[in-house]
Write a structure and sequence with these properties.
This is RND transporter. The protein is α+β, with helices and mostly antiparallel strands. Helix content is 27%, strand content 29%.
Length: 364
């Protein structure tokens, strides 16, 4: 009986010893595997910057009834008509305008100059006469012909008063106007391509950033208020030359504003106007759009970087390559300048013993 008990105890002891040995072996093997097992970070582009905007024509020109050109007769175009640059839009009776008088003044100034070629005053008077004639001809062209290709919108074609708008020319080239926050200003630049989607129709297209304002919208509002009204088109009175000079002097006023203040509180984020042109599809003026600016910036977590800006890149065979990259810091974040591309797999928290060519296990 005693002998049987001893055998049972021996068998149990042997089983326990084998179990302990198995645990030790398993732990040793597991530790060895864990030493070579790493979590992985896959590089990707940052999410695109999104903005909301509205479509608008690149230019809208108003054609006013200009009595200095002549007596208004009628329009040569109809509402909604497409026109080309240089196409006549309005008919005037120019028989009574002052152009003949301006031509006579040029001839008289030329004759005076011929008689006294060395007289500086005759040279000045001749230039003055030519300038008045050229200004008048430019004014006539500006009042009659299309300055750019576009679509006609008739405003008042039935006996408009002097200075009243007859029609408007809306350019065929659409653009998108939007704003960007100061926090996202560094994500856009002139010439960068964007994607857009028309909210009402779902149509999609592309465009290009044409302009980013230097001043925030709050400053621009203040500057526009301080600059006052713009000078209107100069008209020829009894003395057409004097009328042109007076208009030119008025238009030549270029105000300077010092110590400009922006609207809003000091804690308010500034916004900057952005203009997007070269649209791949025409968009009707006034339509609202969502604008997306693709990003090609790759942000890196600190867990993949080692001293000297080295990272460990994993290939398809799970072998690593120790690679030095260039980074730049923006807003406290680290971004890839060169050395990596989208989709690269990087070792997180690499151990100091890891070296190029080592094969690793990727944590599930």
């Amino acid at each position: 009986m005693k002998r049987k008990t001893i055998w049972i105890i021996s068998i149990i002891a042997a089983i326990l010893v084998l179990f302990i040995i198995a645990l030790v072996v398993k732990k040793t093997s597991g530790d060895s595997d864990n030493k070579n097992t790493y979590e992985v970070y896959k590089t990707k582009y940052e999410s695109p910057l999104t903005m909301q905007g509205k479509a608008s024509p690149y230019s809208v020109k108003s054609y006013l009834n200009n009595s200095s050109v002549g007596n208004y007769l009628y329009t040569l175009v109809s509402d909604g008509q497409k026109v080309e640059k240089g196409q006549p839009l309005i008919s005037y009776d120019t028989s009574g305008n002052s152009r003949e008088d301006l031509v006579n003044k040029v001839n008289q100034a030329q004759q005076a100059r011929n008689k006294a070629p060395n007289d500086d005053n005759t040279f000045t008077q001749l230039n003055k006469a030519y300038k008045a004639l050229n200004d008048f001809d430019n004014q006539v062209n500006d009042s009659i012909y299309a300055s750019f290709p576009g679509t006609i919108q008739i405003v008042q074609s039935d006996q408009p008063n002097d200075g009243q708008t007859i029609l408007q020319l809306v350019s065929n080239e659409p653009q998108i106007k939007t704003t960007v926050s100061e926090y996202d200003l560094n994500k856009i630049k002139k010439g960068k391509e964007v994607d857009f989607k028309v909210n009402s129709t779902g149509e999609k297209g592309t465009g290009q950033i044409k302009q980013v304002s230097e001043l925030p919208t709050s400053y621009e509002d203040n500057l526009q208020g301080d600059s006052g009204g713009s000078a209107g088109m100069p008209g020829a009175g009894d003395d057409a030359g004097e009328g042109q000079e007076g208009g030119a002097a008025s238009q030549a006023s270029n105000p300077v504003v010092n110590d400009v203040d922006g609207k809003g509180g000091s804690s308010d984020a500034s916004k900057y106007n952005v203009v997007i042109s070269n649209l791949s599809k025409p968009v009707r003026a006034g339509f609202s759009l969502d604008v997306s600016v693709p990003s090609h910036a790759i942000k890196l977590p600190s867990s993949v970087l080692t001293k000297g800006n080295y990272v460990y890149v994993i290939d398809k065979h799970n072998k690593v390559e120790k690679r030095q990259i260039k980074i730049e810091e923006r807003d406290g974040q680290k971004y890839v300048k060169s050395g990596l591309k989208e989709g690269d797999k990087l070792v997180k928290h690499p151990k100091s013993s890891l070296k190029s060519g080592d094969k690793i296990e990727v944590a599930k």
